């Protein structure tokens, strides 16, 4: 019941500061809660889009059926319909672009493509330990190992995974700083780092910074997550 109340009040923009903190905590720790919020978001989006389309069709029909002598007497009907149409658009744009919901909808943990773990692999070396921790969702431990190994080896790819760890443990500012640092190395994970940097800005409610990164991604169709970046840019 608490979850339903929080979700309802969230979409009505009626959460108290304490309830907002509880909502944010559940979004980070409860997969079922997060899934329900995303489902409600998509459902509301579908309903508003359908209503918007239907109303535009009705406006076209009203205009086509009005004869010249009735235009003056029916102006109020057209005006009211247009105001309603604009109101729907404003309401949806306001509530569909909440950064925390968009972040939850578009974010997923990056897979380990740099050091795949195999069943018979020797797990005693620190690099393997770091990725075993990462794949086991022990992100605090993984972050410390990635940080230590990067300082020792200067392997820039480790910065990317460290940034993901920071996102997972809720240290968004550190994630942003780490992704920016990683991007300077221009390695094979550059495209992924830009995508996750945009998401990190979004999680941090820095929409203008997220816009800049997303615009950079969608400037070239071969960039990582080009289509998702276009959709997210549109949703913002």
Write a structural description:
The structure is a single chain. By secondary structure, the protein is an all-alpha fold. Helices cover 73% and strands 0% of the residues. It has two domains: 95 residues; 110 residues, Serine Threonine Protein Phosphatase 5, Tetratricopeptide repeat. It contains twelve helices and no strands. About 2% of the residues have low confidence.
- Biggest sheet descriptor: none
Order of helices and strands: HHHHHHHHHHHH
The tally of strands reads 0
Q: Give the class from helix and strand content and strand pairing.
A: mainly alpha
Notable features of this structure?
globular, 236 residues, 2 domains, mainly alpha
Short description:
This protein is mainly alpha-helical and 236 residues long. The protein has 2 domains: 2-96; 126-235, Tetratricopeptide repeat domain (Serine Threonine Protein Phosphatase 5, Tetratricopeptide repeat), CATH 1.25.40.
Summarize the topology:
Layout lengths: L1 H10 L5 H13 L1 H35 L9 H22 L2 H8 L19 H10 L3 H15 L3 H12 L3 H12 L6 H14 L3 H11 L8 H10 L1
Helix pairs in contact: 1-2, 2-3, 3-4, 3-5, 5-10, 6-7, 7-8, 8-9, 8-10, 9-10, 10-11, 11-12
């Amino acid at each position: 019941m608490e979850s339903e109340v929080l979700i309802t009040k969230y979409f009505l923009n009626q959460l108290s500061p304490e309830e907002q903190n509880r909502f944010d905590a559940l979004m980070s720790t409860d997969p079922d809660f997060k899934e329900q919020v995303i489902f409600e978001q998509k459902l509301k989006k579908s309903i508003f889009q359908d209503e918007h389309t239907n109303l535009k069709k009705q406006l076209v029909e009203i205009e086509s059926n009005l004869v010249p002598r009735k235009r003056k007497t029916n102006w109020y009907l057209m005006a009211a319909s247009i105001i309603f149409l604009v109101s729907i658009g404003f309401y949806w744009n306001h509530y569909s672009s909440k950064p925390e919901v968009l972040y939850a909808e578009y974010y997923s943990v990056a897979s380990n493509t740099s050091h795949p773990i195999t069943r018979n692999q020797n797990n005693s070396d620190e690099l393997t330990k770091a990725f075993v921790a990462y794949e086991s969702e022990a992100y605090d431990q993984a972050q410390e190992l990635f940080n230590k190994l990067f300082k020792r080896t200067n392997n820039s790819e480790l910065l990317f995974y460290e940034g993901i760890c920071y996102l997972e443990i809720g240290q968004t500012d550190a994630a942003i700083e780490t992704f920016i640092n990683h991007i300077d190395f221009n390695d094979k994970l550059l495209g992924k780092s830009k995508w996750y940097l945009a998401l990190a800005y979004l999680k941090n409610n820095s929409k203008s910074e997220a816009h800049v990164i997303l615009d950079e991604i969608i400037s070239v169709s071969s960039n990582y997550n080009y289509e998702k970046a276009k959709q997210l840019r549109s949703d913002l």
